[in-house]
Amino acid sequence: MGGPFLPLEIYLNVAISGLLTGLVYGLMALGLSVIFGVVRVVNFAHGEMMTIAMYLAIVLFASYGLDPLLMMIPLAAVLFVLGYAMQMTMINPFIARPEHSQFMLLLAVAIIIVNGLLIAFGPDAQSVQASYSFDSFALGPLIVDATKVYAGGAAILAAAALFAFFRYAPIGRAIRACADNHTGALVIGLNVKRLYALTFGLGAACVGAAGSILSLIESVTPSLGPAYTLLAFVIVITGGLGSMTGALLGGILIGLTEALAALLISASAKSMVSFAILVLVLLFRPQGIMGKRLS
Amino acid sequence: MAALLAVEGISKNFSGLRAVADVTFAVPEGEIFAIIGPNGAGKTTLFNMIAGVFRPDTGGITFDGTRIDGMTPDAVCRRGIGRTFQLVRPFPALTVEENVMVGALLRHPNLSSALRRAHEVLWRLDLFDKRTQPASSLTLPDRKRLEVARALATEPKLLLLDEVMAGLRPTETDRMVEILKKINNDTGLTILLIEHVMRAVMSLAARILVLHHGAAIAEGVPEAVVREPAVVQSYLGAEAL
Amino acid sequence: MMKRLLHGVPLHATVLLALLLAALVVAPAFANDYLLTVLIVILYFAYTGQAWNVMMGFAGQLSLGHALYVGLGAYTTAALYVHFGIGPWIGMPMAILISVACGAIIGFLAFRFGVGGVYFAILTIAFAEFARIGFDHFSWVGGSAGFFLPVANYSHDDLMNLRGRPAMFYYVILALTAVAFLLCHALMRSRVGYFWQAIREDEEAARSLGIDTFRYKMYAILISSGMTAPAGVFFAFYYNNLFPEQTFFILRSIEIILGPIIGGVGTLFGPIIGAFLITGLAEVLQELLTWYGFDPPGAKRVFYGLCLLVVVMILPHGVWPPLSRLLRVDRETERTGDKAEP
Fold this sequence. Notes:
Strand content of chain A: under 5%
Strand order of the largest sheet of chain A: 1-2
Number of strands of chain B: 10
Oligomer: heterotrimer
């Protein structure tokens, strides 16, 4: 039972822990935002794709003892290939189709992933117990889980790599040009189809990395996929659909509020609070915190 | 007699850019009135303010004795202003007659009388034979006429046409001009059109308003307006009539 | 009445429809318990799909939270029955009222504030999730531990209290489905129906024709949520147990929309054909899997997902449009057949 009379350190501990988890959520949401910003498709299988990465991380750890923090890069690569292939084969023909049609396609993918994982791994929760799982850092009166510090740090690294890619890499710039002006990109001869596939791959790579990291701090079941998708939506809509910084900020905000809501109200209230934030944002600032107003 | 449509000193800015500046004009009942001007002159913004899409920053629009500026597009239509879109937007999954019937249902809540009304309009617009085709299967000239038919079916007192001739070949333009003239003649419908195709404007409009950089630079009968130096310089000169 | 309903429908289509109805009416006499259960599930999804179709298929508003209205209908009548002994038929108007009130709130918020498309879909999910978490803590109706209706082995059917054997439930859901079909048929060929279709096709163009789109979108969500509530009443009294985790879960909402999407969004027969196809095929698959001794928990849903994938990729408008052309009962043949020149 929580309550307002706990010592301040506890609130701070929970807030820091929520903030660090929020960074990982932010990385996941970053992928959704990048995909939407460029391809203009809402990836409704986003959380499900992340659970794939989480299970892969768990399998790699259980079978070969490979640390999820190191596996972040190979798993990002695996998901990149998956995303690239999905965009090339399935989603590209849907670019010009109505919104709900795209939505159904990805919903189908989501259903297949959730239940495919259910067949493969069963319904029970699984997680990674790394050697440092119970370590913690003491910072004066504050105690922070080592895992969460590593996880938050890894998420920042991955996000920074993505920002750098879009800023400095020629392909990254081409993708941004394509996002700003689709027809313009066509005119100057960019291969839009390939850029879309690259972008979807990058978005998927984000969830690959995020999933790998998250396997350290949260246990996973197949049915968590839709919950993560919803979480990614909440974050991205709060931060501003299509805005990269918005996704990260939204992740931190949601991570923080969920952690504090769990402490102050009850564990099951945390998603209620984030949905309340979502509803308020949708109604009063539909462009999100960092987003430009959509026409 | 008072004008059917009176636009008084309306302006509109978009993030600091002045799209329409202090434009005033009036269209008497039964007249065909054209607004011309080079691209980016503010014609479509002006049009959208009359149709209720944008609220003017300043000034007022009076239609049939009531202020309509700031009304929603649907309320403007119910007051008696029908409009077409520059890029035609028929309801693609509906048939031609269903498209027009949706318009007719505004004044004829009964389905069969709306359908009858739709058929009458389709006859006028030479689309009756294609009435059971899905709208998505029509060619551009047919879609342009469907757009007019749908607006007409709402039984407007004023018809706003946004570049209905654009993209049509000369023979099709002439066909559209003939149809509009005939409707104006037969029913006394007032028409306000934004148009690039001068050939159509010259043969249709009783009066013309010329916009340039958002401001009205000339108004009058076609023959006089096209000779005004300001007009020649700004518009006709640039586009080499 | 019949003449008006059947106006413009080709004769052989009427005959086909009558045959289908007759087959469904006599089915319990020939079907065993298992088949009857499957038919009940099919009709349940045909009914809810029809109700959802009013919003998405007719008016173009994608709701992914219809489990909310099912759940509200279920919990309202179940609570009235368990706590006050009020029968389901008297409880039903109350259930509809509560559902419609919730639909009104969601619709008002969304449509007033211009929330559309995918954003609207997410908003509907959010409200269903609110309900799920709220009911988890609502101890008057059992909270997360579930809410149960008294069950006994019934030797006779008590239609007034919806207590009885599967055949009675079968006829109840068949009647509901038939009423929903007729209602949707009437709506589709009405002024409201055409305005909805205009909004679905192009909202801005619809407004330019004088259609108050806010009002008509509200009508769509009010009718759709009201139609969905009785499915909840049926659900509660047929299954006799309600868990917030299951009743309001997003997968419940998705199950509702699968039928109409596979059958054909915006068509009258789509939700019915879709429900038959997806439930029927899933049962066949289940049988086959059990036969081969391989029966993992998610297999049926993987199949749902694959069906959905194949249909949206190959038949973007669902199964019904091509099927209707095959049976020659589509609207084109109907039109050219009976309209004379004026």
